[in-house]
Amino acid sequence: MDESTQREWKPRSAVSEVFAGLVSGALCVTLAISMAALVFSGDLASGLPAGIGMALLGTIAVGLAGAIGASFPSTVSAPQSSSSAVVAAVAAAVAAAVSGAVASGGVERRLATVAVAVSLASLAVGLSLYALGKFRLGSLVRYIPYPVVGGFLTGTGWLIAKGALSVMSGHALTVANLAGYFSPGVAVRWVPGFVLAVVLVLLQRRVKHYLLVPVVLSTSLVLYYLALKLTGVSLARASSLGLLLGPFPSGSLFRPLTPEVLRAADWPVLGHQLVSIATVVPVTAISLLLNATGLELATRTDVDLDRELRVAGRGNLLSALGGGFPAFQALGFSVLSHKAGARTRWVGVVCAGVCGLTLFCGASLLGALPKVVLGGLLLNLGLGFLVEWVFDAYRRLRRLDYALILAIALVIALRGLIEGVGLGILVAATLFVVSYSRTECVKHALFLSSHGSNVERAESQQRLLHELGDSVFTLRLQGFLFFGSASALLGRVREQLRAARAQPLRFVVIDFEHVSGVDSSAVMTFVKMRQVAEAAGLGLVFAGLATEVRRAMELEGCLEGEAIPCFPDLDRGVEHCEERLLAREASRLSHLPAFGELMGRLFEGDAARVDRFVAYLERLPVAAGDTLFREGERADGLYLIESGRLSSLVRRADGSTLRLRTMCGGTLVGEMGVYGNAPRSATISAEQDCVLHRLSRESLERLHADDPDLALVFHRFAVRLLSERLAEKTREVQALFR
Hints:
Layout lengths: L2 H6 L2 H29 L8 H22 L7 E2 L2 H21 L5 H28 L11 H24 L14 H23 L5 H20 L3 H6 L18 H6 L2 H6 L1 H5 L1 H20 L5 H18 L5 E2 L1 H9 L6 H16 L1 H4 L4 H26 L2 H17 L1 H20 L5 E6 L7 E2 L2 H9 L4 E10 L1 H16 L8 E12 L1 H17 L2 E5 L3 H9 L10 E2 L2 H15 L9 H10 L3 H8 L3 E5 L4 E3 L7 E7 L1 E7 L5 E8 L3 E2 L1 H6 L6 E4 L3 E7 H10 L1 H29 L2
Helix pairs in contact: 2-3, 2-4, 2-6, 2-15, 2-16, 2-18, 3-14, 3-16, 4-5, 4-6, 4-13, 5-13, 5-14, 6-18, 6-19, 6-20, 7-8, 7-18, 13-15, 18-19, 19-20, 22-23, 29-30
């Protein structure tokens, strides 16, 4: 146990930890039984007791590994429906091959071969997951398109639902025997479980309490036994009718891989099934990493993907030694433990202890569990996948992504999981080459010191913003964003948060103007970025969001509550950050009015010169929305801004206007046309009510004639102002081409 766990284990938290561990342990036992029933059904039904022991062993091995080393302390692990569905397909193929190879008998040989196949699956999963984590390749899974993963999970949901019906009815679900499913003798076996599954799905969509599943399952068990009591059916009679899991042999369910089992296995058949066994690896890796990223979003914590892979790898290697099922970190159970108040690694230890007691002492008790309740739980898991990826996904995914999900699921349903996995890999490679092979998504990475807004302010404000230049970090994106590139972007933001700098990072501005599109998985990364920003007290600002990109963000809740300000262009986004910084650091600004500061800067505090110069100026109020002058007009004077804001606008070819610059109080406007003796290069419009001081051409000529020294001081100031603007643009250009 690490030090944090030891520090957190206090008497007042012990109740939460133990309660969460007991609830999670009971659910893990139930899930392990369901997964074992999924694999050991039909011709393999006689091996169910050993199968339950194998599932529990995998739960214990991976659960203890997670309790010791997982990056999320209150992790709970168990055999998962996605990987167990693949194991079930492998077991069925192995059983069929052994049956065809054995002339008579062969039950023990078939079960031994399946047991070794399950152990080999755990071995392959353990070695692969550990290698992925050891070489820090966990992030590679983020490059698999979201719809492809959705297709895998949709097909998995169908296989689970189909297997659950087989568990409850005792008959495989095929087109040939579909009519038989509705005969009274068969329907009574699976219809109650179907109702239980549907009710549980509906409740889970409305009720988020962590006790929902335990309460529903407990109630279902009570009602089932009450129904048996009222109908006069004894447990022995129910068992003989195939309504219960048992009878099981008394004593331990632990069935290790002994030399006798290894000798009885059909190794040539196993050799032919190695490719099928290897199919468990990608499904498990993808499911594990999806669970890990989902856990991040659900609990607002960071999860080390490579560490999770290594932990699951060690646990599955240990499981393989005893013939246990492949298992890994369970999203639902881990979130349940977190909501129950568990914050330490003890919850995983308690959960593993419950599974251990069941493995070595609870065989007779398990035999009395009704198939319809466990099958209903299993069916609920399958329906959960189908509802999420067939119903919910329709409203939040693009039609192309949704069609791809259905296509992969259809191939899995009609041809098998292996073919579906192959199609998914092919589609992933095609999408990567055709759509996602783009250049670096970050076109430019800039700080405020080299790329400020086009707002010209009083000198004291400009100087303060330059000092705070490390406080605003701008990322200008390009191309099509998918999970891999968006994940790298999140890593870049984290890197800037950790970097040492003169000023702390306060804002990150993301410019989407040159982004051509974004897929559903990338949006989830921006949701995570929002969580990281909130945790670090960092302001996140979006700019230039196209309609399609903004809609995708809104559908996934990324922009929920207006926590992320959005602006039509980067210039206004950076301006927002500047205004917030100036408001935050208002005590460091000059207390002089903007115009007084300008005059003081112009004439170095010489009040007599200020009075002589003001005599040549004409005070001019301008209302918000008024136009001071238009593009192409003759330049008949320049203006000193006392208060308000003016914007310099030019018309684009498409008829829209572009803001070139905004001038605030204490700055100068219109000098370019006067000094260059050229027509106005842009239209100047008032954003707010303004007070200006106009120096006309005639007044400037009189100033030259009456007071040449004063005119020279003004000209030097104007040249210095133009030089500063040129230097600022030069820094910006240099930053863009670094």
